[in-house]
Amino acid sequence: MRYKCIIEYDGTNYYGYQRQPERVSIQEVFENALKIICKEDVKSFASGRTDAHVHAKGQVLHFDSDINMKPESWKKALNSLLPEDIHIKSIEGISDDFHARFSVKSKEYRYFINIGDYDVFFNNYTAYFKDLDIDKMKEAIKYFIGTHDFTTFSRFVEKKDTTRTITDAYIIEHGRFLEITFIGDGFLKYMVRIMVGTLIDIGLHKKKPEDINHLFEAKNRRLTGRTASPNGLYLWKVNY
Amino acid sequence: MRYKCIIEYDGTNYYGYQRQPERVSIQEVFENALKIICKEDVKSFASGRTDAHVHAKGQVLHFDSDINMKPESWKKALNSLLPEDIHIKSIEGISDDFHARFSVKSKEYRYFINIGDYDVFFNNYTAYFKDLDIDKMKEAIKYFIGTHDFTTFSRFVEKKDTTRTITDAYIIEHGRFLEITFIGDGFLKYMVRIMVGTLIDIGLHKKKPEDINHLFEAKNRRLTGRTASPNGLYLWKVNY
Is this complex's ipTM strictly greater than 0.95? Predict the structure, then answer.
């Protein structure tokens, strides 16, 4: 039986989603909980990695198990074993055709910036910038929409195909918070944080909105500017 | 010259305000920053302690220094040396008559409970309870207002005088959050957390509002019920 989980985590204390030696990851903590229930190692598959200290409101993963338990019981059992900063929001039985990574249709990331007074309580959960020109940022973000080669907006060549499609991108002001949303078919390593970093530079009048087109054309990772900090970034939703 | 500071901190990673051996405190971190500026040990005096993992929106402290710097420069210098979870909100020169602890007229504490869905991002900053009878809690909190012997609502006999006056106490619902406010001339150790714990028991129908009067009369610490967790508690404001 295959199970699909929607999982939420506060990434502050974790070195990213993916299991790695000597540093605590979400995957390791999740699979440790799974192992206690299943009494054997069970592999889980997520929609993709998130970087160190990045958060998730709606990461999706799947795993297979023959244990005869209702989804609601799986949820209770897992949540009782998980630490307070990782939480299963929902769990459901799903067809074997489903794969948390390969079945992804689109992903939504959101990035939050505190543009009001500095506040210690938002520090792990938002970036902090003053005097951003929000109108310029709203003008600039439209340049990212569409199908582009995102080489300039990624950190390492990990994939040969650096073309991605962003179907929507917009900025909303919620009082003291700026919420920046990107929806697309896939995102390269650091891509959201580099796009946000570029928007911040534009908000600070260090770049212009139309510079984004030149950066796309250059296809040059050396022109990559600011990478926004991980604490403001949330994997918000994965669509299948 | 005496300086009065209003200081905000996220208590998650600290073992309380007061300096103690081998465990990191707000006071130690603040005085370390002060020492770098003053090039000597300088003692600071706060309005009172806060317990491990308790937060402050408006803790007040004072210190003396002969260094000739404007308050705004003190603020910048200290904030540049303090970690991101401790922040000086304001600093002003003040008369030598002022003492952060002995001049206190009243203090305001607030306690936050998430009564909506569990959310990992609120975990360090709110308690979490479902199905609380809020009307009963609102009825109950009024019993705390006035001058009482708070023996039953404190943890240790540290002061001979256990009489305190609560001038106002009320509960406000903000969407998914319950905000419980206590304003009074002083609070015994764990007093706010024990009062909130009692309100939670009343919200869960384990106690009745009128039980508070019996608990006051009993003056018996063994009858102290639930102590609410520190993560929901904020020293909100100190009045002089």
Answer: no
